[in-house]
Every structure is written in structure tokens, then in C-alpha cells.
Amino acid sequence: MPIKAFSAAKGRLGAVLDDQAREELVRSMAAHVLAAAAPLAVCVACDDPDVARFAESLGAEVSWTPGLGLNGALEASVARLAARGADYVTVVHADLPLASGIGVLARTDGVTIAPDRQRRGTNLLRVPTSVRFTMRFGPNSLRAHLDECEQLGLPVEVLDREDLAFDVDVPRDLVELTTRDGGAP
Asked: What is the arithmetic mean of pLDDT over 112-122?
């Protein structure tokens, strides 16, 4: 799980949340996703000491990846886990406040992808470590990851699940989250 420095994460929410509230939201969502990954062992890719302490306090291993950027940090972390015997690695983002059952997803041959609600981004990506899979997170990552699977000849299962599709990136996502089930923003 890649986690950006809490103080730098979710800057687009700055219009509706002050820095402290934004950091608390980010920590809360990350803790939720970590819990949803049980019973899998979790490794957090980060380059921030506060994030590392947070991850370790919740029982996660830390993959220290300064200066590699998101995709580089993930590829380095996957390589470390593969060297230690992992056959598959699940990459999941920390901004999925409804996520559930990540650790018990059905195992399939090939790649499993859970796209975001717009079907442009990738919120979860499960890949075999036996192939060199190039991480392509960023704009239009779903298409890029599907193209990578095609290039590598890997079968793909796309999971269309609301709990894995709902991420919090912009103020309207936060409003939708807080008003679910009749709540007030």
C-alpha cells in the first residue's frame, strides 16, 4: 500500500478541510484499508517517517522508498516481496473508506484490477511476481494497466465493486461519503 506523507496527501480537499482535519481523514482511511487487508501481511511503501511509524504501529511492514515516485516505489516494493517468496502482490490505495474483504479476494491466475468509479483509475491491482509488471498509476491507469496485461499475455479479472471503486480525491467525494445513509456533511 503506497501512502504519501500525511501532510501532503489529499491537497485537493484543502478547500473544505483544514490541514489537521485533512491529515486525520487520510490517517483514518489508511487505517481502514490496512484493516480491510486482513489476513494478508501488509507492506506500506513510503518515504515519510511519520507514515512509517503509523504503518508499523498498525502492524504493517515498511518499504522505505525515498525519491522513487509512486510507480517506482511500488515496483521496488514488489521486487522486495518477490525476493522473499511472495507469488502475488496486491497493491491497494489508502483512500478507500468503504473497502472490505481485500485480504480474502478470490485468487485468480493473472491480474485482478478494481477500477475507480469513473473507470479511469486503478484502486486495486493484484499481480503475479513471476513477471515484471510495470506499474502505471496516474491518469488513465486502468487503460494503461489493461494494456500492460495484454503486452504480457496475462489474463485479467476486473472487479466492479463499489467498496473498492469509491475513493476520496475531491470535495464532492467527501460530501458523498459524509451524506451516505442520510448523514449530514
From this structure: 97
Closest CA to 145 of 91, 101, 78, 104: 91
Containing domain of residue 95, as a range? Answer: 11-174
pTM recorded for the entire structure: 0.95
Total domains in the chain come to: 1
Q: With contact defined as beta carbons under 8 Å apart, do 159 and 112 qualify?
A: yes
Q: Are 118 and 72 in contact (CB under 8 A)?
A: no
CATH classification of the domain holding 107: 3.90.550.10
Q: Is the residue at 3 inside a domain?
A: no
pLDDT band at 183 (very low <50, low <70, confident <90, very high): low
Domain for residue 184, yes or no?
A: no
Q: Are 127 and 79 in contact (CB under 8 A)?
A: no
- Domain-embedded: residue 4: no
Q: Which helix (H) or strand (E) holds 91?
A: strand 88-92
